[in-house]
Design a protein that fits this description.
Helix content: 10-25%
Largest sheet: 7 strands, mixed
Bound molecules: S-adenosyl-L-homocysteine
Protein name: Protein-L-isoaspartate O-methyltransferase
Order of helices and strands: HEEHEHEHEEHEEE
Number of strands: 9
Low-confidence stretches: none
Strand order of the largest sheet: 5-4-3-6-7-8-9
Mean pLDDT: 97
CATH architecture: 3-Layer(aba) Sandwich
Number of helices: 5
CATH class: Alpha Beta
Pfam families: PCMT
Oligomer: single chain
Distance between the termini: 34 Å
GO biological process, one term: protein repair
CATH superfamily: Vaccinia Virus protein VP39
Catalytic activity: [protein]-L-isoaspartate + S-adenosyl-L-methionine = [protein]-L-isoaspartate alpha-methyl ester + S-adenosyl-L-homocysteine
Subcellular location: Cytoplasm
Strand content: 25-35%
Length: about 190
């Protein structure tokens, strides 16, 4: 996991005027009121997913594509959904230029998941949700893991959800602040 963080050049994902700050451990604005996540939170979320090279992963909130690249380093196939077309297109160009071939992109509401490609071994949501979307849980494989920030519009708790026998188990990872998840099973 640390290898993946070291291999992905964060400076390729930030706007030119913020280049001097690319390697600071904090989120940075990427335009359209959105942010590239803080590296510590990217590391914590990724670690919690326990990715294997055969895994198929769904990411909700492509944003700059930085977290997408980390997932693509560790998993087999990454499916990433972004609601803002401009951000998705910029991420597609960036990740293509970096040589990734195991990422599929979709523009739309990721709170409903990507049913055609389900089930997923791991799902990562990178925007803050009011609650865990049922439709994402239903697209998790039997031993799948979901990481999602859940809480209020401005502050959330990063939560890991996985199935233990027949039960869903939730574990809180840390307090965090993500931009809002907007959609059918998110905020309006
Ligand atoms: N992982 C990204 C974080 C981007 S911020 C990075 O490191 O750059 C979260 C992103 O989620 C924003 O780009 C926002 O537009 C997007 N988003 C919010 N609600 C969404 C939804 N319902 N479906 C897909 N993307 C969504």
């Amino acid at each position: 996991m640390l290898g993946a963080l070291a291999r992905v050049p964060r400076h390729a994902f930030v706007p030119p005027h913020l280049l001097p700050h690319a390697y600071e451990d904090r989120p940075l604005p990427i335009g359209h009121d959105q942010t590239i996540s803080q590296p510590y939170i990217v590391a914590l979320s990724t670690e919690a997913l326990a990715l294997q090279p055969t895994h198929r992963v769904l990411e909700v909130g492509t944003g700059s594509g930085y977290q997408t690249a980390i997932l693509a380093e560790l998993a087999g196939e990454v499916y990433t959904v972004e609601r803002l077309p401009e951000l998705s297109l910029a991420a597609q160009r960036r990740l293509g230029a970096l040589g990734y071939t195991n990422i599929r992109f979709r523009v739309g509401d990721g709170t409903v998941g990507w049913p055609e490609e389900a089930p997923f071994d791991a799902i990562l949501v990178t925007a803050g949700a009011p609650r865990v979307p049922d439709r994402l849980l239903s697209q998790l494989a039997p031993y799948g893991r979901l990481v999602i920030p859940v809480g209020g519009r401005f502050n959330q708790e990063l939560v890991l959800v996985h199935r233990d026998g027949g039960q869903w188990v939730e574990r809180r990872l840390c307090p965090c602040t993500f931009v809002p998840l907007i959609g059918e099973e998110g905020w309006t």
